[in-house]
Amino acid sequence: MVERTEQIPIDKIETWDNSRIRIEKISLEPLMTDIKQKGLIQYIKVWKDPDKERYILIVGNRRLESCRLLGWKTIPAIIVEKESLDFQNFITQNLSENLYREGLTPLEIARVCGLLREQGRSYGEISIMTGIPKNRIQDSMTMLKKVPEEFKEHIKYLPHPTTKRKGFIPVKVASAITSASYGRKPEQTAELFKLAKKNELTAQDIELLKILLSKGMSMKKAMETRDNIKVVAVKILFNKDELRKYHLEKTKYNFSLLISKFLTGVLKPNKKLLVDILEQKD
């Protein structure tokens, strides 16, 4: 593969579909300031299409976009000249560049890794090629099959619990919405995504709403009821010998149903049944 460096017209550079889908201008401001003061120290890399008067960006999407916003007409670039750039090498270079410069969203991971899967690569191989944990690749591809199209670009990994959400939906919240449980109606999934984005709902909020919806409540009523419910996580220690007297399956206790019957007075708990209750910390 031959490489050379030269100034090329920015308007002749095309960004491959699986480069970063959207770059917020505010996230580019520090880089733009640095380029304005020092120039472009690290050049972008492009592939020169031998059949057309164009260049395809390999790495440097944020640098390219920063220079565009600064009004540059040309940009120094490392040009890769090869009749057929290796497809897998191309997309893994593109993915790795963006992975370490700015966290990728599940949608971006799923798109690129999906293409590698089509090339016959296993999840383990893709993980080695891209540096992305295998479970994150699998979770991204599985979850995003169930996410409505209009919300896919809003799902992101939450870097830190105190991070302000600014209209995006954390992966844990999206996973809670898409998980199949409580028998909710399919059309309620989009409603939950909309509410999660607007009201910054947590995964616990979503689980509570799903329970309320399963009881026949409307989404509006469920949201109103949610504000009046306190969720307390506890660890209940049962005496196994006493628990067997309630004729539950030995390996699959229906604890929720049992506790519900105790609380509603349908069943009276044996005094020897309960060993202790430990409240869980958030």
What descriptors fit this protein?
single chain; alpha/beta; two-stranded parallel sheet; Conserved hypothetical protein from pyrococcus furiosus pfu- 392566-001, ParB domain; 3 domains
In short:
This protein has helices at 25-38, 61-69, 87-101, 106-118, 123-130, 134-143, 171-178, 187-199, 203-214, 219-226, 240-243, 255-264, and strands at 2-9, 13-14, 44-48, 55-59, 74-81, 155-156, 169-170, 234-238, 274-279. It has 282 residues and is α/β, with parallel strands linked by helices.
Number of DSSP E strands: 9
Instruction: Please write the string of helix (H) and strand (E) elements.
Output: EEHEEHEHHHHEEHHHHEHHE
Strand content: 15-25%
Shape: elongated
Please compute the radius of gyration using only Cα atoms: 26 Å
Q: Identify the CATH homologous superfamily of the largest domain.
A: Conserved hypothetical protein from pyrococcus furiosus pfu- 392566-001, ParB domain
Helix content: 40-55%
Number of helices: 12
Task: Examine the coordinates and then state which fold CATH places here, giving the name of the CATH topology of the largest domain.
Answer: Conserved hypothetical protein from pyrococcus furiosus pfu- 392566-001, ParB domain
CATH class category label of the largest domain: Alpha Beta
Most strands sheet: 5 strands, mixed
How do the strands line up in the largest sheet? 1-5-3-4-2
Whole-number total of structural domains:
3
Weakly predicted, low-confidence segments:
none
In round numbers, the mean pLDDT is 79
Second-tier CATH architecture of the largest domain: Alpha-Beta Complex
The CA-CA distance between the termini, in Å, is: 55 Å
**Classification by helices and strands:** alpha/beta
